[in-house]
Amino acid sequence: MTARAYALSDGNSFYCSCERVFDARLARLPVIVLSNNDGCAIARTNEAKALGIRMGEPWFKIRDMCRQQGVRVYSSNYALYGDMSARVNAVYRSFSPRIEVYSIDESFLDISDVRESDREALARDMRATVRAWTGIPTCVGIGPTKTLAKLANHVAKKNPELGGVCDLTDPEQYDHWIIRVPVGDIWGVGPANTRRLEALGCDSAADVRDLDTRVARKAMTVVGERLVRELRGEACLDLETLAPTRKGCAVTRSFSNRVEDLATMEEAVAAHAARLGEKLRGERLGTDHVTVFFHTSEHDRDRPQRSVSTVVTLPEASNDTRVLVKACLHGVRKTWKDGFRYSKAGVVTTDLVPLAASQRALPGLGQIDREQGAALMAALDACNRRFGRGAVVPGAAGLTPKREWSTKFEMRSPRYTTRADELPVVAAA
């Protein structure tokens, strides 16, 4: 084992835990959170799992059972979850200066400078601090590599007797647990690779660790060799403390109601284009092409099916909402056909470039005044930050309260931490 040490801290049933923070009545009750348009279960508390609710199970199939069993059901509240994630990571940064925010509920921390004898105590202190300051319960896994830290986190979750912490930099714990983790529970090993590894005689993480690296590479390419080395304690993956430059960006949504007319489709795509511009400006990137797509639903088997996409090229790279909306509306009008019930639309772009360094169009070929446009977009973004996203939008994107196509959040809790008009209220005794 090397002297390096990583901790992976993971919020338990994170979306559900965020809901519980602001409603103490939910403690010990089964809780689930649904995907966009209240489609399927994407987060479940242990109590909900015990009732047999599976990840990804469609809401319409479990609706009656949830009502009978008293399951508390919520629509996704991404504004709340994102803000709570930021608060949790602020706590992590008080424990380690080097952090990789891996996902909304998971972060890797470099704790190599912490003495081996103090690592478990640090993890327990961090868990207690996160719980006290944010209300979010976590589990922490520690390992000499990111793969082993992830595996340790899995062990900590599955074994309550560990108290939420597992340290695989401890040789005794490493030897005890590595033989008890099934192949399919190793980080990055999906169903296909699970079958390949089982065909090689691997039943546990220890079996994968003991594979010849050449055999692992042949079965799973360089990923397999790296996996074996990581399980042996050889760090092949460093922390990504800086987010990689975005290569592409997409804004796609399923409609809450089927769209059958051109005007409504234009409104939806314009709203997606406006959001795309906001995302690109946040990273000072631009694009010189956008793909617009929309399609019907395969579930409407009694109706004609259609799926269409088109690429619209811009004269020069841009992140100006006006330019993107105009281009996307052109794509819609070019490909629209009546007589279909469309279920989803989106705008996608790839090969993003830093806007300041991008090549300009020749005069007369669509070049815009970037300085003037940047000032206008800065004002637009400032208004939306201050008064809430969607406070100021292009007219083509429609008025937010009247968007009949927009995503359903019929059971969404208040956005307690990001909207002044939805702050939690404490009633006087």
TrEMBL record:
<keyword id="KW-0234">DNA repair</keyword>
<keyword id="KW-0227">DNA damage</keyword>
<dbReference type="Pfam" id="PF13438">
    <property type="entry name" value="DUF4113"/>
</dbReference>
<dbReference type="InterPro" id="IPR001126">
    <property type="entry name" value="UmuC"/>
</dbReference>
<dbReference type="InterPro" id="IPR043502">
    <property type="entry name" value="DNA/RNA_pol_sf"/>
</dbReference>
<keyword id="KW-0742">SOS response</keyword>
<protein>
    <recommendedName>
        <fullName>DNA-directed DNA polymerase</fullName>
        <ecNumber>2.7.7.7</ecNumber>
    </recommendedName>
</protein>
<dbReference type="InterPro" id="IPR043128">
    <property type="entry name" value="Rev_trsase/Diguanyl_cyclase"/>
</dbReference>
<dbReference type="InterPro" id="IPR017961">
    <property type="entry name" value="DNA_pol_Y-fam_little_finger"/>
</dbReference>
<feature type="domain" description="UmuC">
    <location>
        <begin position="6"/>
        <end position="190"/>
    </location>
</feature>
<comment type="function">
    <text>Poorly processive, error-prone DNA polymerase involved in untargeted mutagenesis. Copies undamaged DNA at stalled replication forks, which arise in vivo from mismatched or misaligned primer ends. These misaligned primers can be extended by PolIV. Exhibits no 3'-5' exonuclease (proofreading) activity. May be involved in translesional synthesis, in conjunction with the beta clamp from PolIII.</text>
</comment>
<comment type="subunit">
    <text>Monomer.</text>
</comment>
<dbReference type="Pfam" id="PF11799">
    <property type="entry name" value="IMS_C"/>
</dbReference>
<dbReference type="Pfam" id="PF00817">
    <property type="entry name" value="IMS"/>
</dbReference>
<keyword id="KW-0741">SOS mutagenesis</keyword>
<dbReference type="InterPro" id="IPR050116">
    <property type="entry name" value="DNA_polymerase-Y"/>
</dbReference>
<dbReference type="InterPro" id="IPR036775">
    <property type="entry name" value="DNA_pol_Y-fam_lit_finger_sf"/>
</dbReference>
<dbReference type="InterPro" id="IPR025188">
    <property type="entry name" value="DUF4113"/>
</dbReference>
<comment type="similarity">
    <text>Belongs to the DNA polymerase type-Y family.</text>
</comment>
